[in-house]
Amino acid sequence: MKTTISDLVIAFLDLLEAEGRSLRDATLRLGWGLAFVLLAMLIGLVGVGFFLWGVYQYTAIWLNPPAAALLMSLLALILAFIVGRMAMAWNR
Predict the structure, then answer these.
(1) Share in percent of the chain as helix, strand, coil (round to 5)
(2) How many Å apart are CA 61 and CA 69, to the nearest integer?
(3) Residue 55, class by beta-carbon neighbours within 10 Å (0-12 exposed, 13-18 middle, 19+ buried)?
(4) Of 84, 55, 50, whose CA–CA distance to 70 is shortest?
(5) At what angle do helices 5-59 and 65-90 cross, to 10 degrees?
(6) What pTM was computed for the model?
(7) Are 76 and 52 contacting, i.e. CB atoms less than 8 angstroms apart?
(8) What distance in Å separates the CA atoms of residue 31 and residue 54, rounded to the nearest whole number?
(9) d(CA 51, CA 57)
(10) Which of 19, 28, 43, 68 could be disulfide-bonded to 59 (CB atoms 3.0-4.6 Å)?
(11) Three-state DSSP class for 64?
């Protein structure tokens, strides 16, 4: 059996076509996965915002509004510190 250069080129191009389809499918899956992760993060941020707002409304009953706002900002900073430390630990 004699293999010519044209047979090798055709086989190489067929391989490139198959790998291109595989790459396209993987890229689409990755894109959809990232979109859903970003959506989940946005929903989580909205949830944290509503949580902090609810705690603010609850503490504003006993404290004056500026003191309640300072307390909520302290709680938000503590939450941000905890999440930052978790991110640092996971990326080691």
Answers:
(1) 90, 0, 10
(2) 12
(3) middle
(4) 55
(5) 150
(6) 0.61
(7) yes
(8) 35
(9) 10
(10) 68
(11) coil
